[in-house]
Structures are given as structure tokens and as C-alpha cells.
Design brief:
Layout (H helix, E strand, L loop, with lengths): L19 H6 L3 E5 L2 E6 L3 H10 L1 E5 L6 E4 L3 H8 L12 E7 L5 E11 L2 E5 L5 H11 L6 E4 L4 E7 L3 H6 L7 H5 L6 E6 L2 E6 L8 E7 L3 H12 L4 E3 L2 H10 L35 H10 L3 E8 L10 E4 L2 E11 L6 E8 L8 E6 L2 E8 L9
Parallel strand pairs: 3-13
Antiparallel strand pairs: 1-2, 3-9, 4-7, 4-8, 5-6, 6-7, 9-12, 10-11, 11-12, 14-17, 14-19, 15-16, 15-18, 16-17, 18-19
């Protein structure tokens, strides 16, 4: 099920975040996402999308996983377990990476924060968090490292948008203002927000500037309320998964289950630079990934700009002169740009920007053009 699926579901077996009651008070519509009962939208997903682009949005991301790796061999362990060179990450910085199977398929994409020389926080996606935690625990054999899954006790709240920094500055002590203003993209620091100790990270999934705040579950409702109040003068709006999906699509960011899967390798997904073959030691999937790189991808993930008014959707066939040459993985109208956008896998020979293709929209071929990603890039 995708972030925009509104199929009614039973919530009996779904997990709830510590902020579920807050979302219900705000009148949120809920949906199943990765086994969690999550807010899809609070009112208009279009207004929530625009709030993030123009002011700020407040997201509950507590369904995401948090897995700690600590010990003398923590860096070496992550170099082995993931495809990236994590031992090269400086303390206080973060790195986007992948965990792959021995065959090179993508188990998940994730962010790794280095909090100390021997302590890292791995943040996998919601539906994959238990799988990633178990896989990391298994791969830790032979390393002097402790892997701890803290997903069930940790909440994650995000403030995304041009006003994000101003909102954060309203809630940190004056002595810690530099921790906000001086925090670079893909970096983190321990800070005090609304009197609550948090791990503050300048990361996000919207294409905008913003912050993500990790706190124990018990502190999440107080933190959420403080952020909502501080954000009111800045136009902050609570934001659900529906606008999160349209925001990440405009920013050309992949969603696991759509663009990424066990049947996908990093090179066809455009994530080849994430894989580090400079590491001296081996890592899980290295041989398969070296072979995949040498062979080159048969298909490539591309951005498609609609030349008409109708939007492509996931699983719609991509055509070239009437022949099927690929498949859409995500697609919808872009609220910011005013035309349809989509991500799709197409034959590698058709991936050049400017290439004209068509998408079969339920029996009618509509024109699209391959364009460079991202579709939307914020003004610095």
C-alpha cells in the first residue's frame, strides 16, 4: 500500500504512534502505511503540500525505525553491512545508504547518523524496520558491536519548509541557537527544544529545508504541541502522508516499494554513487554489485514530465512507438509545478532527457518527456 492509498482498512492490528491521539483531535484521515495507522491528511492535502513549500509542515514520522550500532567495531560493521563507506562519516554527520542482499537487491534505503566514533543511529523505513533490524543483528556476528532496535520506544517528528529554522529558533535556548543556524544539511546535534532533550537532524524527505527530531515516546506529545504553537505565526500546518508523497515525488526521491525493491539494484535506481567500492574490506552484496556495475543497467529510473493534463500512476505501461518499454512507479499532478510528473523504469537506451515517450493511461496513450531529476529544486 502506498502513501496515497485511501482503501478503508481495519485498524485493529495496526500499530499506533505516541501521537495518534493528537492526530485524531485534529480530525486526521488515517491509512495503513507499513503496518502503522498513520495520518493521511488533516484536511486538504493540497493545502498541506503548499504549506511545506511556502511556510512549514509538521510531520509525525514515528513509524520509521531507529536501530543503534555501538561498540569498538561499529564503523567496520556498518561498512560490511551496508553499501556505503560509513567509517568515513565524521562525527555529527549523516549519510544516505542502502542495505542490500548478497544478490545485490535493495532491502531498504536508510539514513545513518554518526553520533560518536563508536556509536551510530540507523534509520530504516517503516515497513522494513523489523527486517533491517534483524538483518543488522545477523550481520553483526564476528564484530565487537551491539545492535539495539529502539524503534518501539522512539518517536520522530519533522518540521519541513522555508520557515523551519525560524520555528526551531523560537524553541531552543539562546545559548543553543547556533546548534540550529549552524547545523548543516545531513548533520545532527543534541539540542534542547521546548525544554526537551532531542537529537536534532537537518534532514528530510520533502525537497525543502527542515529538521527531524528524535525523542522518547513519552516526550513526543509535548514536543508536537510546542512545535505546533511556535509554528502558528509562521503558517505551519500539520501534514500527512498524502502531501509527503507528492512532496518527495516533486523532489525526485525514491519510495521503497515503488522505486526500490528486492528486485532492484542501486545502478538501475540511479543510486550507483551510494555504493562504495573504495572500501578495502568486503561488504554484503559486493560481488553482485560489481558485476551489475560492469554489465550496466538494462533499465533506468527516469523522471517523466507530462505534456498533457492527465497524470500517470504506478504500474501504468510506458510506451515508445506503441511498444512497452517500461513501467511507471509513482505519478501524480505536481501541485507546485502545475503539470503531471512521474518516476518510471524505462529501457536504458531511452533514458536521455528530452526523449519523448508515452504512458498508457487506461487505454489511451498520453505524451510524456524524459527530464532530469529532481522535478523541483528549492531556492537556496
Amino acid at each position: 500500500m502506498t502513501a496515497t492509498d485511501t482503501t478503508p482498512v481495519s485498524t485493529v492490528s495496526l500499530k499506533q504512534t505516541s501521537l495518534h491521539a493528537e492526530h485524531a483531535k485534529l480530525g486526521a484521515s488515517f491509512t495503513d502505511f507499513g503496518g502503522w495507522d498513520m495520518p493521511l491528511k488533516y484536511g486538504s492535502e493540497l493545502s498541506e503540500h503548499r504549506a511545506v513549500r511556502e511556510a512549514a509542515g509538521l510531520f509525525d514520522l514515528s513509524h520509521m525505525g531507529e536501530v543503534w550500532a555501538a561498540g569498538p567495531d561499529a564503523a567496520a560493521f556498518l561498512d560490511y553491512a551496508l553499501v556505503g563507506n560509513l567509517s568515513a562519516v565524521q562525527v555529527g554527520k549523516a549519510k544516505y545508504s542502502l542495505i542490500c542482499t548478497p544478490a545485490g537487491g535493495i532491502i531498504d534505503d536508510l539514513i545513518v547518523y554518526r553520533l560518536a566514533e563508536d556509536r551510530f543511529l540507523v534509520v530504516p523505513n517503516a515497513g522494513n524496520a523489523p527486517t533491517v533490524a534483524a538483518e543488522l543483528a545477523e550481520r553483526a556476528a564476528g564484530f565487537d558491536v551491539t545492535v539495539t532496535d529502539a524503534s518501539a520506544t522512539t518517536s520522530l517528528v519533522a518540521v519541513q519548509g522555508p520557515a523551519a529554522e525560524a520555528i526551531m529558533l523560537a524553541l531552543v535556548p539562546d545559548a543553543e541557537a547556533e546548534k540550529v543556524t549552524g547545523l548543516r544539511y545531513y548533520a545532527s546535534a543534541e539540542a534542547t527544544v521546548a525544554g526537551i532533550p532531542v537529537l536534532l537532524a537537518r534532514t528530510g524527505y520533502t525537497g525543502e529545508d527542515g529538521f527531524e527530531l528524535f525523542v522518547p515516546n513519552a516526550q513526543a506529545p509535548v514536543l508536537w504541541a510546542a512545535l505546533a504553537e511556535a509554528g502558528q505565526p509562521h503558517g505551519l500546518s500539520p501534514a500527512g502522508l498524502a502531501c509527503r508523497d507528492s512532496l518527495r515525488l516533486e523532489a525526485g526521491m525514491p519510495l521503497y516499494g515503488n522505486e526500490l525493491s528486492l528486485a532492484t539494484n542501486p545502478f538501475e535506481a540511479g543510486l550507483g554513487p551510494v555504493v562504495s567500492f573504495k572500501k578495502e574490506a568486503g561488504f554484503v552484496g559486493r560481488a553482485a554489485l560489481e558485476a551489475a556495475k560492469a554489465a550496466g543497467p538494462a533499465r533506468t529510473l527516469v523522471g517523466l514530465k507530462g505534456l498533457g493534463r492527465r497524470a500517470a500512476r504506478a504500474h501504468y505501461p510506458v510506451l515508445n512507438d506503441g511498444a512497452v518499454v517500461g513501467e511507471v512507479t509513482s505519478g501524480q499532478p505536481s501541485p507546485t509545478l502545475g503539470y503531471p510528473v512521474a518516476l518510471a523504469y524505462v529501457d536504458a537506451g531511452l533514458a536521455e532527457p528530452g526523449t519523448r515517450l508515452e504512458v498508457d493511461l487506461r487505454g489511451k496513450a498520453e505524451p510524456f518527456e524524459v527530464v532530469a531529476l529532481p522535478f523541483y529544486k528549492r531556492q537556496k
